[in-house]
Specification:
Layout (H helix, E strand, L loop, with lengths): L1 H27 L5 E3 L4 E8 L12 H25 L4 H24 L2 E9 L2 E2 L5 H18 L3 H5 L1
Antiparallel strand pairs: 1-2, 2-3, 3-4
Helix pairs in contact: 1-3, 2-3, 3-4
Function: This protein specifically catalyzes the removal of signal peptides from prolipoproteins.
Enzyme class: hydrolase
InterPro entries: Peptidase_A8
Length: 160
C-alpha cells in the first residue's frame, strides 16, 4: 500500500514542479514573450491548447471543458488502478507516475484557464518543434519508460 502512495506522490511532485515553472515563466514574461537561451532553445510563452485535440470541438468551450474533465478523471483513476495492479513493476509504475504527473499539470491549467501554458521552444535554425512544458516532458518520459518496460517481456531481450 505504501508503494502505491509513493508512485502517486511522485505524480503530485511532478505536477507541482510543472505548476511552479508555469508561475515563474508567466511572471518572467510580463513584459516580453520570448527569451533566447541558446542556438536551439528559446523560452516562448504561449497560451495553448484551447481545443481538445487537433482543433476539434472548438465552438462549444463549456461542452469541450466538461468532456475533457470527465475523460481526464476516468484516465486518472485508470492510471491509479494500473499502479495498484502492477505495483511490483517498477519501471512501468515510474512511467505511469510520470504520465499521471504530467496529465495533472496540464489538467490544472485547462480547468483554471481553459488553456495550457507552454514555453519550451526547441529549434534548429528555422525548423521549430512544438512548444511544450514540463508536463509534456513528463508524459513523454513516462511513455518511454513504459515502452522500455515492455522490452523486458520480449524473449529476445531476455537473452541479452
Amino acid at each position: 500500500m505504501k508503494k502505491k502512495f509513493l508512485w502517486i506522490f511522485l505524480s503530485f511532485i511532478i505536477s507541482f514542479i510543472d505548476q511552479l515553472s508555469k508561475i515563474f515563466i508567466t511572471k518572467l514574461f510580463i513584459c516580453k514573450k520570448i527569451l533566447i537561451i541558446n542556438s536551439f532553445l528559446n523560452l516562448f510563452l504561449i497560451y495553448n491548447n484551447k481545443k481538445i485535440i487537433f482543433n476539434l470541438i472548438y465552438e462549444k468551450i463549456d461542452l469541450q471543458k466538461n468532456i475533457l474533465i470527465i475523460i481526464n478523471i476516468i484516465i486518472f483513476f485508470l492510471i491509479i488502478y494500473f499502479i495498484k495492479i502492477f505495483i511490483k513493476e517498477y519501471i512501468f509504475c515510474y512511467g505511469l507516475s510520470f504520465i499521471l504527473g504530467g496529465a495533472i499539470g496540464n489538467f490544472i491549467d485547462y480547468v483554471l484557464y481553459n488553456y495550457v501554458i507552454d514555453f519550451f521552444d526547441i529549434h534548429i535554425n528555422r525548423l521549430h518543434w512544438f512548444i511544450f512544458n514540463i508536463s509534456d516532458i513528463s508524459i513523454f518520459i513516462g511513455v518511454i519508460l513504459i515502452i522500455l518496460d515492455q522490452f523486458k517481456n520480449i524473449k529476445y531481450f531476455k537473452k541479452i
